[in-house]
UniProtKB/TrEMBL annotation:
It is found in: Membrane. This is Tetraspanin Tsp2. It comes from Phascolomyces articulosus. Keywords: Membrane, Transmembrane, Transmembrane helix. It is a multi-pass membrane protein. The keyword Lipid metabolism does not apply.
């Protein structure tokens, strides 16, 4: 309650000091509060919680995968190193970003919220990269890429791990680039790893890019909320004094400088064109036309423009 009373006192003081509100409650009203917080602050909190939830979910999923905590984890670790690494980086950065946002929301610090809004963009780029890599891997001739990966990229230890987990031997058959161990030898009756490996990779990559592309619009909404609501985390936005502009000197802003210049110009005009008889009323203006004719005294002859005017 003390914090709310202090904010109200500061808002009233700012309204009395600076003419932006003109001291009128109908010019700038205090925004409505919900349980002591502004609506923008609640929106920031909800969007930040969503970011924290899916960031923590993917961080835990990557940790469990690296720790080989389920049956097919070794297949993902061996065959999808790049996707797993980018996913872990994106999720970890999302958690760090959400923590920064929570600090800014708690202390109503616009600088911290600006850093939070800036960090959301690398998270968006990494999230899009995960979806792009998984979609490209699934759509662009997956079976041929798996064969090239098996024959040229995997080490013997990787092949043994895949063969042991998928219960197969070799790629097409036990004689096709197989690494022999206790369960796999040339006369083994186990099938090749081509079919099982392809089915699992297709399933994993499809689920990955579907989930990722579903999260992209959610993350875009979080970015929009951060940009729109970061300055309105409290009701003091727009009521504080403007920062000092060094090259304006003693003037507060451009309006003060402009008013001072207008006053100086009016004073210069009075000095350059003083009134000889300030109390004498001005003479009536009569419209006359000057002719080019002159008299003998070289004085100008003035003729009336209308017939009813007299010389």
């Amino acid at each position: 309650m003390d914090n709310q009373d202090n904010e109200k006192y500061l808002a009233q003081k700012q309204q009395s000091l600076y003419p932006k509100t003109f001291g009128r409650p109908d010019v700038r009203r205090e925004p409505r509060r919900y349980f002591g917080w502004t609506l923008a602050r609640w929106l920031l909190l909800c969007s930040n919680i969503v970011l924290l939830l899916y960031g923590m979910f993917f961080v835990l999923g990557c940790i469990v995968t690296y720790a080989k905590g389920y049956q097919r984890a070794i297949v993902i670790v061996v065959a999808n190193r790049d996707i797993l690494a980018v996913t872990f980086t994106a999720a970890f950065l999302a958690v760090i970003t959400s923590i920064v946002g929570l600090v800014g929301i708690r202390w109503k610090d616009r600088r911290v919220l600006g850093i939070y809004a800036l960090l959301l963009w690398p998270c968006f780029a990494l999230l899009s990269a995960v979806g792009y890599l998984s979609y490209k891997g699934d759509v662009w001739n997956l079976r041929a890429k798996l064969g090239m990966q098996w024959r040229y990229d995997f080490s013997p230890q990787d092949q043994i791990a895949l063969q042991d987990n998928l219960h197969c031997c070799g790629f097409d058959n036990p004689h096709d680039h197989a690494t022999y161990f206790a369960r796999c030898w040339p006369e083994s009756l186990l099938p090749g790893c081509d079919y099982k490996f392809y089915l699992f990779e297709h399933y994993f990559l499809t689920k990955t890019y579907i989930v990722t592309f579903c999260l992209v619009p959610v993350h875009i909404m979080i970015i929009i909320i951060s940009l729109l609501c970061a300055n309105h985390v409290d009701h003091l936005f727009g009521t504080r004094p403007r920062p000092l502009i060094a090259y304006l000197g003693r003037f507060h802003d451009w309006r003060d400088w402009e008013q001072s210049r207008l006053k100086q110009v009016s004073l210069d005009d009075k000095k350059n064109y003083p009134l000889s008889h300030p109390n004498t009323p001005p003479e009536p203006i009569v419209t006359r036309a000057r002719t080019t004719c002159t008299d003998h005294d070289q004085s100008m002859v003035i003729t009336p423009r209308h017939s009813y005017e007299k010389n």
